[in-house]
Amino acid sequence: MSFLQVNGISHVYLTKTKAKEAIADLSFSIEEGEFVSLLGPSGCGKSTLLSIISGLLQPTEGNVIIQGKTKHKPGESMGYMLQQDYLFPWKTIEDNCLIGLKLTNRLTKESIDGTLNLLDQMGLYDVRHAYPDQLSGGMRQRVALVRTLATGPDLLLLDEPFSALDYQTKLKLENLVSATLKTHNKSALLVTHDIGEAIAMSDRVILLSPRPGKIARTFQMPSHLRELIPFDARNDPEFAEHFQVIWKELDSLEQSPT
């Protein structure tokens, strides 16, 4: 059985005057340790799908199975990393990273040591007593990643976590996140508008159609690209070929009448 199964998910948003279908009969799976990206036009339901998978939103139809379970609490066995870091400004970096463990009553010497080790791996140990406003945007996102990993999630949901960063910092964090997930054998689902980011980081790229979001096409990345760090993958001769194919398909979807 796959690590994550999304089965026939549909979701409709209701307002006082009309109903808007965000996702229609969406199904796919993710294996343990696999990194999958969702690409698609704005408004195709990518972020809605992450909210459903996380348990924060109940779908109109369909279900999500994670490690064989259809019932899961919001955030259970999952980490959610967003575009904004949402760090508490009045708490130190260390305290921000420990907040998830405190909320789930798993704050032990072992879990604290594990979190401090993650901070060290991310090059943040020396600023653990600093406050968020003393750090750069890239450092804050690294803190957000440590906070996400500190609770030991099996699945990471990444909603455009690098889109607000400058390009150089973005590339560095792509490498860092990719290496960290491979080291810990974590499964991940990334929502992004960046075709290059999806190709460089993913084992597989799922392209969604305009609203309501449906799977238009799935692209399996070649094995030699998947073995490279994202920066090197961007410089591989085949990278441009895959970029052009996905770009043309996405452009075609965006130009199609809805």
From TrEMBL:
It comes from the Bacteria. Residues 4-235 form the ABC transporter domain. SUPFAM superfamilies: P-loop containing nucleoside triphosphate hydrolases. Gene3D superfamilies: P-loop containing nucleotide triphosphate hydrolases. One of its GO terms (molecular function) is ATP binding. The keyword Transferase does not apply. The keyword Nucleotide-binding applies. InterPro entries: AAA+_ATPase, ABC_transporter-like_ATP-bd, ABC_transporter-like_CS, ABC_transporter_ATP-bind, P-loop_NTPase. Keywords: ATP-binding, Nucleotide-binding, Transport. This is Spermidine/putrescine ABC transporter ATP-binding protein. It comes from Guptibacillus hwajinpoensis.
